[in-house]
């Protein structure tokens, strides 16, 4: 029972991180109906930026976290400005190809600069404690709490603020919305900034929980988060969160029951199975094709 | 009238250009096999170029002519490579005789084609741009499965494959691939997949059997992907799951989009350019993997159709297509 509870906490922790990254994929898909394959590498850059920052300036953890969130937000906006905006009216395939290319450029540049994974210093003073017979530590609580806080804040922003309303309007109809006076380009830039912020936070939290950073993180964890977004229904913000926690639970269960190398196989097979039965994901709404 | 006569004689030349080219390529390959025209390195690069042409032309069928976006071609290559490699190493007793090698290659292609068929069925469940997701998941599943099944050699890979991919064999497969895909593309089926690219719903409304056309395109594309994989396995004599990752898929995508979408001569050009570029960039090490995707991004931004996009050299067209174009000019 204790073992089960322990694994459940691990699952929620991993799921929180997946959910944070998946939100970025889902937000962009909602607005541009485009798969931002470079998003996983923004997450990876977040982890590396944190490592670089703390090895140059001895800043407290919270400061590092906030600074990295700003950096990855800017990176997200930069990618959109340079690589996606010129292709806004091109066939959709062109933007997907560019996204894939951008992700690989970021990943392989990092790989060339830092060929081997690097250890991440512990920034968060993690204190183990026992609660109802289950051993936890404060880092796990912090990760779960910060992620939940960010997600609740995002949900509030999307439902209540002007930007949130503009975002939802843009995802409904991108051609009509500018006529209503909504600055679409700014809405899209903010969307990429928000996605980048969440990915940066996920990068810092992940690198504290699993303290090794490597260039392939974006491909391993980022694409898994993309799977989570698709499982939940890409374009749907709550679906991304649901998908993240489901994938976290499935992965932890896989590692418990099978050799850990089966993780990828199970995760991607789950994706295909879900696409067979729910082609638009668990919470996604089917899109009607119009002539 | 003289203009017409000139056109007629150039047509006569066109009719013979393809067969003459094919025979001379085969002839050079066979002469090399007998007398050794090139040194080992040049032969290796030529075979690699041939395999890349097969990969690029077959991916162009789906990504160029049909306008879908598959990122899983390295997965079909992996399936073909492992199917052929396992058949040769673990199933067939003793050394594979040279005459049996084409059968092994066909087996690799057929297994890949079957998987392609299944993926095509799966893709009908979802809307258009989900194909990228499905093929990406397929690529990851293949790689991960090969790493976890002991029979395939696990992460260390499959060793002890014989070196059977020779220059004449590769040349023959290149010619077969280009011939089959060219004739398909300029047939009724080709019109159907071009119609699907332009507008799938409208094509269906005009009586195009879109599902059949898509399945056929997928099956042919993955068959030749598997063929290329089989040749690749018997060229390197060693395959491991890490070879067939997303980088490999990106390399093939770069070939398709450099050479030109919906152009087979473009595919040949793209495959040869990327093969040479890969050799030239060898000293760059891992930076090579930066240059390739960067090329892809710049291509999409500044020349999205590639060098020969949607165009074809006249001498490459089949006779009937040429006649049709002449009639169009005359009327």
Strand content of chain B: under 5%
Summed up, the helix count of chain A is 10
Order of helices and strands of chain A: HHHHEEEHHHEHHH
Strands ordered across the widest β-sheet of chain A:
1-4
Walk me through the structure:
- The complex is a heterodimer of chains A (291) and B (331).
- With 291 residues, chain A is mainly α.
- Chain A is built from ten helices and four strands.
- Chain A has helices at residues 2-32, 39-56, 61-84, 92-113, 138-160, 162-172, 184-209, 217-232, 237-257, 263-277; strands at 118-119, 128-131, 134-137, 212-213.
- In chain A, the strands form two sheets. A two-stranded antiparallel ribbon of chain A has the order 1-4.
- In chain A, β2 and β3 form a beta hairpin.
- In chain A, α2 runs parallel beside α4, α2 (39-56) packs across α8 and α6 packs across α7 (184-209).
- The longest helix of chain A has 31 residues, at 2-32.
- Chain A is globular.
- The model of chain A has no long low-confidence stretch (mean pLDDT 88).
- Chain B has 331 residues and is mainly α.
- Helices cover 73% and strands 0% of the residues of chain B.
- Chain B has 13 helices and no strands.
- Chain B has helices at residues 2-35, 40-65, 73-91, 101-123, 130-148, 167-185, 188-198, 200-205, 210-236, 246-259, 264-280, 288-302, 319-330.
- In chain B, α3 (73-91) packs across α4 (101-123).
- Chain B is globular, with a radius of gyration of 20 Å.
- Classes of the chains: A mainly alpha (291), B mainly alpha (331).
